[in-house]
């Protein structure tokens, strides 16, 4: 059996976040953190700069082509938003080299972007000040599956098949067959990468938001967003998918199951554009198939 720690330490040889991300993180954590220094760090990476300007001027932020320089982008967005954006872009580049055989990478990242968009939509509807941060947490929600398919592909496949046959859910099958579930692996990875502390808590509690402590509200958001991705993948009607979410989760979010379909539509609206924005090479390859 494998522990989440063991899987993540193996993954570390394959995937680590770029230096620029860690430098920006240091600026964010430092009392003297400066917008100018963060702008300089981003500018030092031309590919990152170009992508950041594309994202800031995209429908995700709605500045419609008005932001022409990185310094302006950093001033408008602020340090936390820039940190989160660089993290989102780093994730796509770090995992670009990881292509497990049994995994359709376009479908995987499409689901991850959809989870991020759905999480952001729910967070905005709840009036959360950090709604855009939930996009990044949603983008990371399924990263544990990617690690499992890379490191223990046969076992990950067996767990998936057990879930498809309907005898147990995928997380229970993973715990029985692998020794840990994808949420634990995602949380361990977030810890290992020294992401903001709440990320690991939210990712770890995404299957059972009650366990999220102070972050249980955010974990409930990711829980619902994850169910939207599954409904999309399986072609399940929104009403049926919403009915399988515990009443306590809806109560905590102060939402009704009827809102599932609306959030799903909202996430689908910009989905293709954002997959192309964050995962350009995958989107292009998919388009040419």
TrEMBL record:
<dbReference type="InterPro" id="IPR052340">
    <property type="entry name" value="RNase_Y/CdgJ"/>
</dbReference>
<dbReference type="InterPro" id="IPR013976">
    <property type="entry name" value="HDOD"/>
</dbReference>
<keyword id="KW-0808">Transferase</keyword>
<dbReference type="GO" id="GO:0016301">
    <property type="term" value="F:kinase activity"/>
</dbReference>
<feature type="domain" description="HDOD">
    <location>
        <begin position="14"/>
        <end position="209"/>
    </location>
</feature>
<dbReference type="Pfam" id="PF08668">
    <property type="entry name" value="HDOD"/>
</dbReference>
<protein>
    <submittedName>
        <fullName>Histidine kinase</fullName>
    </submittedName>
</protein>
<keyword id="KW-0418">Kinase</keyword>
């Amino acid at each position: 059996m494998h522990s989440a720690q063991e899987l993540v330490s193996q993954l570390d040889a394959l995937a680590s976040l770029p230096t620029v991300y860690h430098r920006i993180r240091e600026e964010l954590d430092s009392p003297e953190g400066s917008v100018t220094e963060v702008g300089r760090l981003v500018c030092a990476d031309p590919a990152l700069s170009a992508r950041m300007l594309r994202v800031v001027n995209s429908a995700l932020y709605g500045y419609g082509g008005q932001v022409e320089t990185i310094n302006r982008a950093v001033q408008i967005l602020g340090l936390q938003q820039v940190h989160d954006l660089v993290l989102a872009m780093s994730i796509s580049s770090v995992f670009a080299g990881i292509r497990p055989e049994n995994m359709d990478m376009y479908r995987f990242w499409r689901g991850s972007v959809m989870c991020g968009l759905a999480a952001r939509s729910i967070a905005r509807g709840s009036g959360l000040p950090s709604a855009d941060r939930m996009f990044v947490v949603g983008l990371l929600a399924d990263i544990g599956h990617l690690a499992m398919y890379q490191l223990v592909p046969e076992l990950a496949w067996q767990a998936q098949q057990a879930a498809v046959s309907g005898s147990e859910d995928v997380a229970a099958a993973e715990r029985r067959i692998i020794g840990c579930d994808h949420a634990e692996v995602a949380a361990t990875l977030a810890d290992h990468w020294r992401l903001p502390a709440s990320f690991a808590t939210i990712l770890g509690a995404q299957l059972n938001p009650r366990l999220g402590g102070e972050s249980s509200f955010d974990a409930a958001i990711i829980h619902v967003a994850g169910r939207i991705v599954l409904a999309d993948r399986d072609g399940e009607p929104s009403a049926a998918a919403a009915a399988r979410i515990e009443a306590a989760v809806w109560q905590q979010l102060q939402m009704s199951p009827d809102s599932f379909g609306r959030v799903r539509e909202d996430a689908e609206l910009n989905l293709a554009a954002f997959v192309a924005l964050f995962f350009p090479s995958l989107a292009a390859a998919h388009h040419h198939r």
